[in-house]
Amino acid sequence: MNPFFNKYDTPHGTVPFHLIKLEHYEPAIIEGMARQKAEIDAIINNPAEPDFANTIEPYEQSGEMLHRTTTVFGNQLSANTSDELQELANKLMPMLSEHDNDICLNERLFARVKTVYDNQEHEDLNDEQRKLLKDIYIGFTRNGANLNEDQKAVFRELTKQLSLLSLQFSNNLLKETNDYQLHLTDEKDLAGLPPSSTEAAAETAEEKGLTGWVFTLQAPSYSPFMTYADNRELRKELYMAYNTRCAHPNGQNNMEIVRQLVNLRMQVAQLLGYKSYADYVLERRMAQDQAHVYQLLNDLLDAYTPTAHQEIEEIESLAKEMEGDGFKLMPWDLGYYAHKLKERKFNLDNEKLRPYFELSKVKKGVFGLATRLYGITFKENKEIPVYHPDVDAYEVFDKDGSFLAVLYTDFYPRKGKQGGAWMTSYKEQWIDRQTGENSRPHVSLVMNFTKPTKDKPALLTHGEVNTFLHEFGHSLHGMFANTTYESLSGTSVYWDFVELPSQFMENYSVEKEFLHTFARHYETDEPIPDELVQSIIDAQNFNVAYACLRQVSFGLLDMAWYSREQEFDGDVTSFEREAWKRAQVLPQVEGTCMSVQFSHIFSGGYAAGYYSYKWAEVLDADAFALFKKHGIFDQATATSFRENVLSKGGTEHPMTLYKRFRGQEPTIDALLTRNGIKR
Fold first, then answer.
1. CA 294, CA 608: separation in Å to the nearest integer?
2. Topology annotation, domain 354-540
3. Which one of 60, 358, 471, 576 is the catalytic residue?
């Protein structure tokens, strides 16, 4: 029995991971495509005059089985992949791309959609229905519906190549990350490293059948090494390994893939009548056009650059004090000496904080914050199937006790998991138009946190606490969804708005009242000392300008790649260095290249959209200012945020939603004030 063929017989209709096998995906996807084709044929063969009820709604609801299967397949490719799964993806992606094109380029279907769109004034549609109709109509035009037959053939080929190349980019990066290890056998090489790091490295070595210690390019291993290791040559070795991934002359080199992805996306955009891929993307963003994106990036450059140079000069001054006047600060030194300076200025060390951020307590704190703000509660349910032993599943209940959502948490790195942290969904929210039932979402949080060891539980850094809050903010956006149509639900919003709920939650990581709700020593249960909390607060803007310029540099690089109007056949590294040079504060190192590992913009959906993080940061600072005014746990403000932003999905333009919550358009002032740039 193929579990994808039938309705899931599990709690809340959750994915029956325990029944799914590799061989189930392909037949389910093929059957899913066939069912959707039949559903589309029924729409276009309907003899009745096209209207919202017989064209738009059935189109919105089509492909249920296919979507259900590909959602699991795609999420497993990121969170729990294997060589066999990746091989199957290479086979299936062109088929799926062709299927999508068959729908988007179907002239008879588009004719019906266009008829409804052109005659919408004759129907009694509500605002959400009008938004759905507009999105579907524009979706067709942006996916080639107005092209002639020759152009459609070209469009099909371009999109097929894009789907394969973006998958290959990700697979190469995962393999390069997993293949490297720094194997140390001399205890002297561990000088400076905290016990949490060396214990984890010893366990990694043991898992690999080696003696000594093994450090990897996974964040929980890499970051502490770059922060604490006294051995500068080993820091350099690890830094170079990390920053040259996919730039080596081997099968995982992404240089040519970058060229092809940039050129293919430009060709798609120009085929559709746009000058560049950035113009194509930004038409459906809050920013609207390149001018607004560059205005934001340039405003941030102007505001933060002087302070960023001061920050680096202060770090280098300390390094010279410690090492001698001839010392030159290099990128592999930044984390190490920045930590020394932070400790000197604020008496703050992440290792001092770890014992107070034991994962189970952090989880209670984050869940408890949602309870305090919104009244929702979380209950683990062992009966809900999960895809890996590391994963836990929770039922989430609303303040009135009704079922709200399923939440999966997946915290630790492993070989088959992509790096980084993200929120995703296995099921979106929608309202059944026949029964009126509000079908609730199934949301997943995937992270790569410090793992427990034999002797200690998972003890997080403050940065990891921040990451948890960030991704949890995305999950609230998904869990609070309350729209009629699935394609408008939850995080289905403009990409430069989607980071508002996540970055908003990060504000709590430096709030004393919040930290005191959960931060207790994992051994003694003593609350975190006030002086440590104050150090966190005092240090919140440490190196904030450098961090800002780093994000701006990524935004500039992204825009440089996708604002191109001519084919690129040059040197990727040289182009990169020119693109982001205005935002660089430290020397750029020969052999390193960000673009070939920049999965956000080459395989992760952020192409011409990386600026979104800074765009949303302006929004989140402005939004949190309202909470600061009324109280950071103020339920009335939280209810307004939920009702006007978190529950609305993409049913209205994001600025309309934001102004309804905030009462005004955002300005950069709140961000500059929060960061201490403006007083």
1. 12
2. Neurolysin; domain 3 (1.10.1370)
3. 471
